[in-house]
Amino acid sequence: MPRSGSANIRDVAQRAGVSASTASRALRADSVVAVATRDLVLKAAAELAYSLPPAAHRHRLISVLARFPTQWYFAGAIAAVEQTLSEADHRLVLHDIGTPERRRRFFERVLPLGQIDGLVIVSTSFSRLERQALDRVGVPITTVGGYAPGYPCVGIDEDAAARTATEHLIGLGHREIGMLAFQPEDSVGMDTANARTRGFERALLDNGLNLNREWMIQAEGSRMAGGVRAAERLLSLPRLPTALFAMSDELAFGAIHAARRAGLSVPGHLSIIGFDDHEMAEFLDLTTIHQPVEEQAREAARILIDGIEDAPEKTALPIRLVIRGTTAPLVAN
User: Fold this and answer.
1) 252-266 per-position pLDDT tens digit
2) How confident is the model over 179-201, as a mean pLDDT?
3) pLDDT-based confidence at 1, cuts 50/70/90?
4) Mind listing the pLDDT tens digit for each residue in 137-161?
């Protein structure tokens, strides 16, 4: 048993017979936990001489770091984080670190000021020096998507999701499959790009298929224009795949546009699957991998707000394959 005054939220939760998250919520002034549960938690806290850290009793300023805040994935995650923080009466300040200059300014001018109470990172990787700077701040940090070792992350299994997308194409009879990829050497998106590439490659190799590096095209950025340019490079090759996995729906949209402009039908000549389930995917009839963006962001924000000390380093939410009209069985010539 912890000595008086040394208990933490996990000790309180264990004594009350509830989760750490529930115990933390029950002790907040604006708690919406059931009265009976709240009474159990308050009793356990009193017996253990536990009280919330001072920061939990005031409105907090939470910074959100995002690379491309206007893009669909980032915008959805930011909106969900803001809603969750607002419901807890905390404030959000957004930092766009999508360019080297903005990134440098945040780490050299903003972060050292120490004027934030927490940090939510949206799908961003960091260099060694940047990680050291984050660690020195000493505030709670959670991440949405990507992976930042040492900080609680809520996302999906990127590797498995890319494998699911690729195996859908294989299941349709496709044996020659290409990929439109993010640029893995870009440190701010490195983890996501590498994980999705692994899933794609493993699906092919485990099914005894050839991995044609010539058909693995790195796009300039992750938006539709980048998808158009990457697909144009692919379509200029003397021999084409019959199917294509795009690392984002926006890249897939660009690839569909480029293919049709070149006189190829989708999925007649080229089956295309995307990733994300962008709000436009349904209207463009895109087969894709759905990932729960808003749920990831809300859970990451709740972990930070509640100060859950035993939150797992990686929480992977489920994905699902959404089959629409841009993929079809391979037609033998």
Assistant:
1) 999 999 999 999 999
2) 81
3) very low
4) 888 899 998 777 788 999 999 999 9
State how beta strands 141-144 and 153-155 pair. parallel
Please compute the mean of the pLDDT values over residues 25-41 and round it to a whole number: 71
- Residue 30 neighbours by CB distance under 10 Å: 8
Output the CA–CA distances (angstroms, integers) from residue 281 to 3, 198, 245, 286, in the order listed: 56, 24, 14, 5
User: Who contacts 238 (Cβ-Cβ below 8 Å, separation ≥6)?
Assistant: none
For the packed helices 190-206 and 158-171, what is the interaxial angle rounded to 10 degrees? Answer: 40
- Tokens found for residue 315: 């929480």
Residue 98's SS3 state is coil
Helices (H), 150-292: 158-171, 190-206, 224-235, 249-261
7 pLDDT band, cuts 50/70/90, is confident
From CA 144, how far away is CA 323, in angstroms rounded?
26
- DSSP 8-state assignment for residue 298: H
| CATH architecture of structural domain 9-54 | Orthogonal Bundle (1.10)
Q: Judge if 9-54 and 158-292 fold alike in CATH terms.
A: no
Domain borders along the chain are: 9-54, 59-156+293-317, 158-292
The structure tokens listed for 225 are 């224009």
Cβ-contact 3, 9 below 8 angstroms: no
φ, ψ of residue 218 in degrees (nearest 5) = -85, 125
Query: What class is the 158-292 domain?
Result: alpha beta
Determine which of 49-58, 87-96, 131-140 has the lowest per-residue pLDDT on average: 49-58
CATH superfamily of 59-156+293-317: Response regulator (3.40.50.2300)
d(CA 154, CA 137): 21
Tokens standing for residue 174: 């496709």
